Automatic annotation (TrEMBL):
Biased composition regions of type Low complexity, renumbered to the chain: 85-95
Compartment annotation: Nucleus
Keywords per UniProt: Metal-binding, Nucleus, Zinc, Zinc-finger
Highest taxon in the source lineage: Eukaryota
Name of the molecule in the record: BED-type domain-containing protein
Organism encoding this protein: Hypsizygus marmoreus (White beech mushroom)
InterPro entries, sorted: RNaseH-like_sf, ZnF_BED_domain_contain
Cellular component GO terms held in the UniProt record: nucleus
Extent of Polar residues compositional bias: 112-125
Keyword Methyltransferase: no
Primary subcellular site in the record, as a coarse category: nucleus
Amino acid sequence: MASKKTYPQDPNKPPGEACGPDGNLKETEDMDWSEPGVETISSLSTTPAKFTFVHMTGSMAEPATRKRAAPAATTAPDPKRVAVAKDAATASAGPKKAKPKKLTAVDRLVTRTPSSDAIPVTSQPKRAGAASGESVVPRPKKRGATSDVYTVFSVVDPDDESKGHQCDLCRKLKDANPGKYHKLQTIFKGNVTALRSHIARQGMDHYNHYRAACVAQGLTPQERAIPEDEMNRKTGILADEESVTQKTMDDYTTVLPKPTEWTKDGLEDKIIHFILETDQALSVTDRPSFRELLTYQRPKMKDSDIPHRTKITESITERAAVIAAELAKELQDAPGRISLTFDGWTSAIMQAYLAVTAHYITDDWVLRAELLTFDELAGSHSGENTAEVLYDILDKTKIKEKVSLS
């Protein structure tokens, strides 16, 4: 057993815990390892620790002379350690500096110096539930292309634009003189175009305020808000001068007439007009192809809705009688005398006809010529047959005293 080493005592240093009074080093078990506030080994659990011995095999049991293997592939860092590292870096960097607050459109509106004729912020209507003395600034949800509207209008409820917009100018008029303007509308639920149209309809008072407020806030007044008189003045369209008018949609579109309601009487009128205009035979209405054409145009129509030639003949005869009576009345009321002309005609099958025409002047000095009759003669164009037709038509129209033959 080796002897214990001894060291001479240094007179300048008092004996410490590692050295004994004689200056020799103490053994480990003789030293006092306790430290104030620190739990000593003797105070720990005296339960003996259990050790497990593992028999090392394979590469771990190879001699130390073996070359070190290449480092393994880098694995993903532990998320918990990364989070701890970030917290530590943040704590060391100190508190994060707050970014300056970005002014909103409403803040800029409040801080802007209002024009002399602009509505002050304190005159804006109060929102429902706002505290006493609290002024509510219009807070539109959309700014930009619609900003000009809010120089005259304010949102009734900033949290719900569907409740409409209030015209502040109309509101001021109504509050100043409720007896005169008690029916004046102040709340509007239309879109932005409708709000601008309201400004235009109210004339120059609304428009002057609107334009001044837009200029003061750097906005562009919209054409829809300009009153018609002001627009005419700007475009050079004056009532007492001829100029090029502004084109409208009517210059590029054609308005079609509204279709008339279908009726059986209307169908009969159209068929009669077609027969007379194209000189068709009355039997055309009985032809299957003609009736199929009408049915094709209106599938809901029944065959019984289409008149036959017997019905057409009756209708034409009745209408001719009505027209003849109206013409006789007009001839009787003519201010001057009536002249008659007549002409004979023979058909290809040698049938004689005679046409009689009346010529007269109306009260407004318009020369008229109306066909009175086109009759078939019984025989040839003799004087006796012609005279018989003439006297018959004069008797029917009752204009014998007003006629001069020529």
